[in-house]
Specification:
about 140 residues, alpha+beta, 2 helices, 5 strands
């Protein structure tokens, strides 16, 4: 699993003084981006003019509140790969206590930037993702 560290900023909290549900979507986006940046190489640049990665689905479960100045660890893993889709999951854990705060399941789809249609994952990407799959 890939790990992303987040320190909660004041602006990410709500009137109840805990992290707003909107902030979690941003945290997951950051974790996804860092995961893909760590995984990719020059053979496949997901952040190029040729491709776009679209978030097709996300489901978030909130289990415990997080607060201003808290340090969170977001773990990113791969649950499945399709022709052009990729299933991901994220776990948000308090760095100090290890408490599971939230989890998320999502699906991203690789899209051809020119045609705006789904595009199959390159073989170089599949080679890197396959060992990360649960059944591997």
């Amino acid at each position: 699993m890939h790990e992303t560290i987040i320190r909660v900023r004041f602006c990410e909290t709500d009137a109840n003084r805990h992290v707003s549900q909107v902030s979690y979507a941003i945290y997951f986006e950051q974790a996804r981006t860092e995961f893909f940046d760590a995984l990719m190489d020059e053979g496949f640049d997901w952040w190029s003019s040729q491709f776009s990665m679209v978030l097709a689905h996300q489901s978030i479960t909130y289990l415990a509140p997080a607060f201003y100045r808290q340090t969170l660890r977001i773990y990113t893993g791969v649950s499945a790969i399709g022709r052009s889709s990729l299933g991901l999951y994220h776990l948000v854990v308090d760095s100090e206590s290890g408490t599971l705060i939230a989890n998320q399941d999502s699906t991203v789809v690789l899209v051809d930037a020119l045609t705006q249609k789904s595009h199959s994952w390159p073989d170089s990407f599949r080679t890197k993702i396959t060992p990360l799959l649960p059944e591997s």
